């Protein structure tokens, strides 16, 4: 299949499409990102990459990082599912009401409360979880240039009151084991990871390829773990818009409020798209349209 030709069609169709979305500004550093940025990259199981636009420019991946931390927790920790559930939330990603209803057990690891529990697990597991996460991302991408954006991390720390509330509430109910400041510092840094569409597409090839790295054929994650992570991306990767994404795109994926979306077709490709304006659910509007067009033009979805 000529993926580059298909991406060229998507670029032509959408490059001048100005959606009504809003660039995230509750994290002040994100508000400075130009709304016209638009890039897309597809990494094929053959090892080839295809892309257009701003696909090699880095941006804050935000909640996309939750897939990486869950993979690490699955690889090194035990008892994860006693502390976080695997059900779709149906509510906003930072809902306090749902956490109260569920007695401090987050509905899934991709909403903020669930990712904070995973962060707590990794803080318990590693002396330096920030370095372990960075090393993991370097390994799965075969790219050591990827780093945290310290300005974004500081911006999140300054304004992350809702996350502070979530972690304190779970601490009160016994589902956070470490000091709150340690957990939040790790969480804010994981969200600040700066990556390009190309780097993200390459990173998610490990979930496309049954946990095996393309560049050295190393089995870094168990096949069963990638199956479960992909299932969670399908049902929970877009918060209260997960059903809409499945309906329109038909691939497992994960979004971030930095405007990025990554999706995979098992055993075929991984694709990342970046467009900062977000819809009312906190997902990139143009990004969703681009991925919907991709699966329509290729005729490939998991359904």
Notes on the structure:
- With 303 residues, the chain is α+β, with helices and mostly antiparallel strands.
- It is built from 13 helices and eight strands.
- It has a five-stranded antiparallel sheet with strand order 2-1-8-7-6. It has a three-stranded antiparallel sheet with strand order 3-5-4.
- A hairpin with a 4-residue loop joins strand 6 and strand 7.
- Helix 1 packs across helix 13, helix 4 packs across helix 8 and helix 6 packs across helix 8.
Mind sketching the topology for me?
Blueprint: H1 3-14, E1 39-44, E2 49-53, E3 59-60, H2 65-76, H3 96-101, H4 112-125, H5 129-141, E4 147-148, H6 150-159, H7 161-172, H8 180-191, E5 193-195, H9 197-203, H10 205-208, H11 223-236, H12 242-248, E6 253-255, E7 260-265, E8 269-274, H13 285-298
Antiparallel strand pairs: 1-2, 1-8, 3-5, 4-5, 6-7, 7-8
The multimeric state of the shown protein is single chain
Average pLDDT, all residues: 94
Biggest sheet: strands side by side, in what order? 2-1-8-7-6
- Give Rg in angstroms: 18 Å
Beta-strand percent range: 5-15%
Poorly predicted residue ranges = none
Label the structural class. Answer: alpha+beta
Roughly how much helix do the residues carry, as a percent range?
40-55%
CA(first)-CA(last) distance: 19 Å
The helix/strand series, from N terminus to C terminus, equals HEEEHHHHEHHHEHHHHEEEH
Largest sheet, described in full? Answer: 5 strands, antiparallel
Number of helices: 13
Overall, the morphology is globular
Number of strands: 8
């Amino acid at each position: 299949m000529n993926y580059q030709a298909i991406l060229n069609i998507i670029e032509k169709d959408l490059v001048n499409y100005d959606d009504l979305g809003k660039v995230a500004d509750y994290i002040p550093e994100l508000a400075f990102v130009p709304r016209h940025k638009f890039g897309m990259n597809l990494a094929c199981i053959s090892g080839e990459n295809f892309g257009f636009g701003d696909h090699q420019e880095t941006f804050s991946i935000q909640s996309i990082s939750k897939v990486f931390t869950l993979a690490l927790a699955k690889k090194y920790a035990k008892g994860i599912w006693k502390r976080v559930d695997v059900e779709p939330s149906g509510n906003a990603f930072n809902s306090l009401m749902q956490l109260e209803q569920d007695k401090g057990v987050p509905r899934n690891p991709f909403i903020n409360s669930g990712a904070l529990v995973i962060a707590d697990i990794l803080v318990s597991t590693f002396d330096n979880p920030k370095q372990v996460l960075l090393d993991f991302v370097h390994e799965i991408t075969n790219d050591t240039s990827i780093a945290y954006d310290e300005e974004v991390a500081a911006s999140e720390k300054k304004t992350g009151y809702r996350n502070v509330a979530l972690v304190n509430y779970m601490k009160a109910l016994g589902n956070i084991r470490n000091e709150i400041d340690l957990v939040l510092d790790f969480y804010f840094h994981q969200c600040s990871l700066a990556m390009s569409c190309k780097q993200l597409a390459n990173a998610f090839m490990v979930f496309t390829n049954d946990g095996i790295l393309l560049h050295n054929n190393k089995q870094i994650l168990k096949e069963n773990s990638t199956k479960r992570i992909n299932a969670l991306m399908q049902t929970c990767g877009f918060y209260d818009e997960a059903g809409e994404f499945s309906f329109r795109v038909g691939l497992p994926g994960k979004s971030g409020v930095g405007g990025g979306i990554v999706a995979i077709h098992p055993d075929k490709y991984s694709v990342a798209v970046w467009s900062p304006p977000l819809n009312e659910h906190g997902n990139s509007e143009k990004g969703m349209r681009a991925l919907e067009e991709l699966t329509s033009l290729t005729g490939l979805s998991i359904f």
